[in-house]
Amino acid sequence: MTATSPYLTLAAVLFCIGLYGALTKRSAVMVLLSIELMLNAVNLNLVAFSAGGWLPSLAGQTFALFNIAVAAAEAAVGIAILIAFFRSRGSSEITDMTTVGGGRRRGRAQ
Amino acid sequence: MSTVTQWAWLIPVFPLAAFLVLIALGRASARTAVFVSTAAGAASFALAVAVAAEYVRGAEDYTYEGPVWLRLGDTALRLGFELNRLNALMIVVVATVSLLVLVYSAGYMRGDPRIGVYYAYVSLFSASMFGLVMSAHLVQLYVFWELVGLGSFLLIGFWYAKPEAKAAAKKAFVMTRIGDAGLLAAILLLFWNMPDHALDFTSLHNAFADGRSPVSEPMTTLIALLVFLGAVGKSAQLPLHTWLPDAMEGPTPISALIHAATMVAAGVYLVARMYDLFLASPEAMAIVAYIGAVTALMAATVGAVLTDIKRVLAFSTVSQLGYMMMALGAGAYAAGVFHLFTHAFFKALLFLAAGSVIHAVHTQDIREMGGLAARMRTTAATFAIGALALAGVFPLSGFWSKDAILASVLEKDVLLFAIGVTGSFVTAFYMARLFFLTFYGPRFEGGGKREPAESPAVMTVPLVALAVLSAVAGFIEWPTGWFDEWLGRPKGHESAGWPVMMLTTAVALAGIAAGWALYGSRRAPRRGPVGRTSALYRLLERKYAFDEIYEATVVRPVRTLAGWLAVLDERTVDGAVRAVAAATVAFGRFTGRLQNGQVQTYGVAVLIGLVALIAVAAGRGIWS
């Protein structure tokens, strides 16, 4: 049996890095990048469990392939939306993507 | 026999109804206000005279106990009213002066935009005064006592745009409140100590009759003195007298009604009503007599130097009330009440005549007056009658009542008699001074004022009526002794002997002569006997510096304390409230950061929630 722990650990680490990036990066492109990172970490997880783990089967690897396809589609759509937003708003920062006040202006005293 | 008396409860109801109607009408037209109030006043007057006539014919005392008003444990206080001879007399006095003042005010207050409010307040005051006089027990009397004080406050401060008027109204109310606190303490002490906790006057009479007392001797004296404290406040005796001169800021008809004839007489009335209590405590009687005497003399001396016509009359009122208290304290019940009766008429007359003068020349400073007798004949004549009555000149009413007082006091205590006679001299002197400076002498060129003319009939007719009353009211004593017997107290002395009568008349004439010599005759210097700058003059002019003393010893410390308390209130109490508010706002602001429209913030929230959920689930061992 292949040891799954190292793969799971790596996947977890990558997922956390991706999560951190998705939640803190100001640039929307970086956020999309981080989302891709999270998806890839999930792929690693799926493949690791498909090989070792509790119920090894081929389903994991199939799922991972589907995931890659979905990730690619989603990235394309995301970039398209981002470009449209940039064209209308003139900025690609996450903090500007709100109609509620209190984004970048949060820094000043109320 | 008491067929009219059972309707006596209507006497306060008429003016009360007038008050309610006028308040409801708001900015009533002047004619409506005058009509409504005067009609009510006339109705009360007619009924009061009818009731009094019954009592003159010898009706029994009548008490009506109405519905239960307040239950205190086992006892119950009832609304009700009581009529007896003292009451009936007071009711007539109040009703007469009220009616005349109502008529007079139609002329004096003409053109005032708030005349409807004025008449409403006067009606309220009348209703309260009647209620006070007709009360059957002490608590009801106290309620009306306070209401009368309220009426006085409202009317003194009627022209509230004047800061002096506002200050005077507050001063009057606060000073009488000090007295009222004493009266309340007395009521409480009586409530605790009286058998059955009864506070109605019949029970009080029975408990204290013949010099007995249900409580110990010191307690009796204490209660009597506390009641007297209430009277001191309301009747402006030493040391609570300084509000009355300031109360002259109110309209002159009010000064006549409230501060000459009725409200200030309420203190004397209270002592008379509670007379059995006082008789049970000789020490209290002595204190009453001496305070009355000292007040009488002191106020008279101040009246001799003041230049405001109304303030001279105010101090005169204080002085005459002192005479009444002196009489009551010396055991001369009938004399004191008799003087109250006559004083109401001639003092009201003097005030209304002064009002007529003020109305004509638009000033209250007698140094700016002079030579008015020719132009204002009726006013001058009626003022002269009032002044002579006040000075106690035969055969006007004041002579009889003041003589009765002095004669009774002579038997009791020679010192009181001496003070009384000296006071008489000064009284005659200052009235002569006032009369001559106002009505005679060279006309002061006051700088373009309108030519003073006699006042309209609506003002002069009451003056004439009061002048007639001032002249003849004294003859109620004829045949001698009838009045005293009727009031129910033995006179305790034989009718005033000739020596006393001659002495008092001589003293009064001497005072008038002195006044004429200094102010009336053609070569009169029109200045007082003491130089303007002498220490005595300055002391008198400052009214013995009572106001200054009170300012320094009472007002300033209280203000300082109030200042400290205000700071404490601002910092600690308000500070605590503000701190709570600030904490709430801060908390709100803090949690508001959660709703900032940022996706990443919401993502963090989701993450935290998910982690928490997993931790809980893992902790419980349940996979949800």
TrEMBL record, chain A:
GO BP field: ATP synthesis coupled electron transport
Protein localization: Cell membrane; Membrane
Membrane topology: Multi-pass membrane protein
Catalytic activity: a quinone + NADH + 5 H(+)(in) = a quinol + NAD(+) + 4 H(+)(out)
Keywords: Cell membrane, Membrane, NAD, Quinone, Translocase, Transmembrane, Transmembrane helix, Transport
GO cellular component assignments: NADH dehydrogenase complex; plasma membrane
Pfam family, one: Oxidored_q2
Main location: membrane
GO molecular function: NADH dehydrogenase (quinone) (non-electrogenic) activity; quinone binding
InterPro entries: NADH_UbQ_OxRdtase_chain4L/K (IPR001133), NUOK/Mnh_C1-like (IPR039428)
Enzyme Commission number(s): 7.1.1.-
Family from the record: Belongs to the complex I subunit 4L family.
Function: NDH-1 shuttles electrons from NADH, via FMN and iron-sulfur (Fe-S) centers, to quinones in the respiratory chain. The immediate electron acceptor for the enzyme in this species is believed to be a menaquinone. Couples the redox reaction to proton translocation (for every two electrons transferred, four hydrogen ions are translocated across the cytoplasmic membrane), and thus conserves the redox energy in a proton gradient.
Self-association and partners: NDH-1 is composed of 14 different subunits. Subunits NuoA, H, J, K, L, M, N constitute the membrane sector of the complex.
NCBIfam families assigned: PRK05715.1-2, PRK05715.1-4, PRK05715.1-5
Protein's recorded name: NADH-quinone oxidoreductase subunit K
Organism in which the protein naturally occurs: Candidatus Reconcilbacillus cellulovorans
